[in-house]
Every structure is written in structure tokens, then in C-alpha cells.
Predict the structure of High-affinity branched-chain amino acid transport ATP-binding protein LivF.
Amino acid sequence: MLLQIGSINTFYGPSQAIHGVSFGVGNREVVALLGRNGAGKSTTLRSIMGLNPVASGRIAFDGQDISRHSPQAISRLGITLVPETRDPFVLLTVKENIMLGYRPGSPYTLDRLMDLFPLLAELLKKKGGELSGGQQQMMVMARGLAMGPRVLLLDEPSQGLAPIMVKAVANVLKQLKGEDLTLLLVEQNLNMALEIADRVVVLENGSVADTFTSEEGRANPGRLEQYLAVH
Ligand code: ATP
């Protein structure tokens, strides 16, 4: 496993959000992390990134324990988080927003990114704040890729987007599959997750409730829906 999460526990002050979560993500695998609101998906990503450090447990990247590393050190090792909040620099141009992430040696040059995100090619001179939600999502994904990560953590890329933009984001993710990249994707859109991921990990109340291949998930939708249905 390229990324191995081992029995991690994460707290917000006295309140425990993650309870002994363990799962792995193989090199070039796409794993979707699913679960209801508050299940602990974002916190898991933030723990991997060192933004909500684990209280105990181990997170290993390529065999190296990173669970006490700073977010900057984790980023330098090759893990990038594209957060749910998107956070564009509203006064910088789209090109500046993207190239802010660029690291020499990254295979995702501006040209390559424009092939992946043709919608952005015509917007490069616009300000980040002038874009629609979907365009901003494309921009922050492009920025994350420009860093040349080995592992891309994506927190709800389809959240709040118009259906046509959800499709566009899904298309980009499908193109990224098969490249030399490992994806851990938090998604509320079940169909999109099953379409893109190789494997699904379901969180419930901060613990892993189930894990199965996307093929198994598609063949047995009831298995997933029981975790996602609102009680
Ligand atoms: P969502 O889809 O709503 O983002 P999630 O599965 O990503 O849900 P988390 O955001 O990781 O869930 O939240 C896990 C738990 O931690 C929830 O009980 C939530 O209320 C709590 N939590 C999240 N952020 C904070 C915070 N900053 N301070 C205190 N508790 C928090």
C-alpha cells in the first residue's frame, strides 16, 4: 500500500471524531471514502495531511511514518489535499492561482493542465473570484495537480455543482485514473464515486463500517445505501 492508515484516533478538543480508522490505498489506486455528513471523511483527509494531527495510530506513506509530520513536510513528500472549501485567491488570475502550486518537475505543466481542463483555457486571465463554483473547482484541482503529487486527496469535488459541472469533474477524474497518480476521493455523489473508484471505504460515526470494490457496490446498491440513508 502506498498510503496506509493504521488505527488512527483524531480529536477536536475533547471530542473524538475518528475512532481507530484503518485502511490502505494502493499505488495508482482510486479509493472513495463515503459516509453521511459528520461521519469523519474530511477529518480523515485532514489527518493524513497533518492538518488535524492524529492523537494516536500511524499513517505511513511509501513505508515512512508521516503521522507526526507538519502539513508542509507531508506536502513536500508528495501528498496534496484539494479541500472542500476551494479557497481561490479571488484577486489573482486563474493562471496565477494554478501556477502558485507548480513545482518544477511536475508532469502537470500549464499546457498539460489546459488539455485536462479545456474549460479553464479560456479563463486564464480572469480573476479567481469571477469564476463559477464549478470553474473554481477545476481551478483548485489544477493547482493541486501542478504540485505534482503522488497522492491527491480530494474533498467532495462535486459538492454544490450544477450537474453539467459534476460531469466535467468526473471526466477529469476518469482521465487521471490510469496516470501515475493515486486518488483518495471523498464524495457524497454515490454514482460518481462508484463510477470512478476502484474501491470504496465507508465511514460511520468516525469508524470504518465497510469496505468493498466498486464492482461489488454497483452489483449491490442496498449495501451502500444503508450507510448513506438519512435516519
Ligand atoms: P461532511 O460531509 O459534513 O463534511 P464528514 O464526514 O467530512 O462530513 P467531518 O467533517 O470529518 O465529517 O466531521 C466528523 C466529526 O467531527 C463530526 O461529528 C463533526 O461535527 C466534528 N467536527 C468537524 N470539524 C470540527 C471542528 N472544527 N470542531 C469540532 N468538531 C468538528
The chain has ten helices and ten strands.
